[in-house]
Amino acid sequence: xxxxxxxxxxxxxxxxxxxxxxxxxxxxxLSQGSTPIDTTHCLKFLTEGQRLTRVSYIxxxxxxxLGATPYWQPNDRIWLYVGDEERxxxxxxxxxxxxxxxxxxxxPLQNRSTYxxxxxxxxxxxxxxxxxxxxxxxxxxxxxxxxxxxxxxxGLATQDANNPDLYTVKFKRLPAYLCIMPYCSDEFxxxxxxxxxxxxxxxxxxxxxxxxxxxxxxNGTDVANNIEMILNGGNGxxxxxxxxxxxxxxxxxxxxxxxxxxxxxxxxxxPKFPGQELRAVRVIGNHExxxxxxxxxxxxxxxxxxxxxxxxxxGGQIELAKKHKAVEVSENEDWDGTFNR
Length: 341
Fold this sequence. Notes:
This protein has 341 residues and is mainly beta. It is 4% helix and 44% strand. The protein is built from 3 helices and 29 strands. The strands form 7 sheets. Strands 2, 5, 8, 9, 10, 11, 13, 16, 17 and 18 form a 10-stranded mixed sheet that branches. Strands 15, 20, 23, 24, 26 and 27 form a 6-stranded mixed sheet that branches. A 4-stranded mixed sheet has the order 25-19-28-29, with no helix packed on it. β3 and β4 form a beta hairpin. It is elongated and about 70 Å long.
């Protein structure tokens, strides 16, 4: 029998059991624009799990920690994978502001025992996500841009054996994510410094266009090995911090999951070098960037300077110069958590 489907998504940020909704919580109708949606006989889909199941905002992320709180936003959609060439998107939700819980509504469909379900960011065809050559971030320590840059998740909705109107689903995010936090240990350089942009290079593809519901991150088109982060419309973020400071200049990047030998190029300016754009290149080395994980990269942009704070060129007395720790890498894995009903 064909029925309208309702996804009730309950996301939590700390370890706990599955959040469920009773029948009384299902509204009798929902306004989608000027068209009311009758939800009286909807099927209910519940999520189980925690942390970063899906989020445009990743709030309260802590470097090398697991704390973060996910939120859905107005105009978010999710998609049912009906077949390789057929995806069905939600036609409405109850989201009016950022929220940890949401209900998504679907047109009439066959009452299957399982559905593969996807969140595909701002994708409108329910099929392709694109990790582009340029990823634009405006405020520092903000992840709203991820929805336009390949953020996606997958879950399997399973029909409850004792209640055919009830499904459960737990999402797992499909890309890997970087949180890059630059700082400058050199006081002479950092006063008034501005982070202008970041480029990421790999020995393997980190971007492209992907039908993740069908192939995951294989069989992509327009694949390439570089991404450029454009910060605050090109105006940049402050870089006058002597230690990692998320609120000041944290940069979030979506990349394809795999083993990558990453090179991070950090471009910045300093009033001490007027008219110049400085560059710090940091080699991370070979590292596995897993799906559903965030890797924190804390990088010092200060190079080697002599006693007069002049950059030391090739052949200079590096052993006598100020030396700085260049990069720290730590990874948070398995964001979604695992819980029993």
